[in-house]
Amino acid sequence: MKAIQLLTVIKNKDAKSMVSWLASAFVFLVLVFNAVPVGAQQLTEDNSAHGPNSDAISGRVVGVNGQAIPNAVVMVRALDTQSQGKVTTSDSDGNFRVSGLEAKVYLVSATGPAYTTPPRDPNNTQANFYRVGDSVRIELLKGGVITGNVTTPTGEPIVAVQVQAYMLRDINGKRPRYGSQSRQKLTDDRGIYRIYGLAPGTYVVAAGGTGTPFSTQSSRAYETDVQTYAPSATRSTAREIIVRAGEETTNVDIRYRGDPGFTLSGKARDSRSPTESYWFDVTLSSINRGDAQEDLSSYQSYGGEGFAIYGVADGDYMLTGRSYFGDEWAVSESQRIRVRGADVTGIELVTKPLASIAGRIVLEPSKVAECKNKRRPLFGETVITPWHDQKESKNQPLFLWALGGPTTPDKEGAFTLRNLAPGQYRLHTRFFARYWYIRSITLPSPTTSASKAPVSDRLQDVAKNWIALKLGDRLSGLVLTIAEGAASLHGNVKYSETQKPVSGLAVFLVPAETDKADDTLRFFATRVATDGTFALNNVAPGRYWVSAKSAGEHEVDLQSKLRFPDQAAERAKLRQELAADKIEIELAPCQNVTNYSVPSSVR
Fold first, then answer.
1. CATH of the domain at 344
2. Which of 57, 107, 162, 466 has its CA 20 to 30 A from that of 577?
3. What does the alpha-carbon distance between residue 80 and residue 83 come to, in Å, rounded to a whole number?
4. From CA 266, how far away is CA 350, in angstroms rounded?
5. Total count of domains within the chain
6. How far apart are CA 29 and CA 509, in angstroms?
7. In terms of Cα–Cα distance, which of 293, 542, 405 is closest to 6?
8. Tens-digit pLDDT profile for residues 433-488
9. What percent of the chain has pLDDT over 90?
């Protein structure tokens, strides 16, 4: 994969260049959110190796068996910039080093021919971030292969028809997070195709149709047809193909049907300046059986007469337009489209800017003697991530959730989260500073901002309430307070003589003080390691009830889920259960408790 330059859109680019840029941008976003390199350090831990003289990130690119992968393209990009960052290649031993870096948070990824990133950990919903001084071990997986031939109903080979492999579910049975993920290849002069570098999972394979806006001149003869799925089927009866890492699945043959498809056409415009020419991408997302959405795309170039999507089969769809200008995306409200035996024309899409949240981080130092001379959080090494309510994902095209990502504050602590799709959000913050904790996250209340009530009564606690956003919303004034004085609690789980060690165990810490009972940020959880140990960091000082309880094997990020705004009843129930266990601990500011034994409450 070539180095990608994101968000550098020049208005006089031609349509083909713009479409190619959009595809590259989306691929990069998928890599950022889905890639889970091995060896990431926790952002909450101090590390003496990260001194003022450290200006590099180094590491090694390896395969699943630890073998070196030479000539892999490694990209290192600061999270606070939209440029491509720095690019290098791994040497013959798989090693790489990128120097001349500032003290910031970085994304590190690698690609190689025929390789793919390992399947994401179902218990890990966060991208990994790195800082200067880190040594990164990036693991790549040899991709799987699907190959076969495409023939006419009479058995003649079809030359230069585009064949696409769509991932339905990954190896963990999860659908792709941000919409259709696919690879494509044209058949050769024998009608044979070979698609390689596929991530492990379940796929369907189709020939013909639009599939992508990047069709070549030779493949356009088939773009008005409905896609034919292997073996010779419509989408509803397509063969599902299991792809395994490094293995080739052969004889995935397609007997091409050549069914004529329908056309969706219309025009897109931008609400900010209806008379100005913009470039638009138009995406048609299918709605079927709860599988990953399979997207068909088209574009409307600057000053263009409109858009058209060909080869559409009967079905139910969401149609969404998007454009990019300055430093933000604009999207239209998704229109529900029903195709029933005829073209759909005269569609109008009006794009509006996505939402944003602007705020600042406030550092609140402690006067406690034990906290003197502790490392302060650096704004450049702080990551703020918007997490949307995933229950809303099914109501919008999945690619929208990839447009808005994490950010870091500037040198003054100010930050802006841009390109947020309509929905409900909470904020997740990570930083490198062991003795600090998140004390509060607030927004000015829109209904009482002019009131003479105390400031504390004029603020919304957005740590325990969703932030609701609509298209074009511009929220500002958010204050994220990080206070000094955090404690840590490390130890192990203790079983009684009648208990047996169990898997899926977690240690929970909940506030014992009555006035903190509904403080979302004082609920903590961590999984117990296989050796029975646990670690809780960045804990606000105070009194807590603590216990080890069963949390299930596949629960996603326990602490984050525990703090979700709609988990208030579950938090209250958990607090009641831990209060009944009567195991209380008081943590002083900047205290480190080690070798603490927590009795298991599992009966």
1. 2.60.40.1120
2. 466
3. 9
4. 11
5. 5
6. 35
7. 405
8. 999 999 999 999 875 444 555 555 678 999 999 999 999 999 999 999 999 999 99
9. 57
Please check whether residue 9 lies inside any domain of the structure.
Answer: no
10, part of any domain: no
Residues 6+ apart with CB under 8 A from 135: 39, 57, 58, 59
Q: What is the largest CA-CA distance in the chain?
A: 85
Write out pLDDT tens, residues 11-23.
334 444 444 444 4
Asked if 284 and 265 count as a contact pair (C-beta separation under 8 A), the reply is no
DSSP string, 335-389: EEEEESSS-EEEEEEEEEEPEEEEEEEEEE----GGGTTPPPPPGGGEEEEEEE-
Q: How is residue 327 written in tokens?
A: 């430093």
Where do we find the tokens 């009966």?
Answer: 603
Q: State the Cα–Cα distance between residues 176 and 155, nearest whole angstrom.
A: 35
* Pair (121, 158) in one structural domain: no
Asked if 316 and 336 count as a contact pair (C-beta separation under 8 A), the reply is yes
CA 108 remoteness from chain centre:
15
CB 379 within 8 A of CB 411: yes
Grouping H, G, I as helix, E, B as strand and the rest as coil, residue 16 is: helix
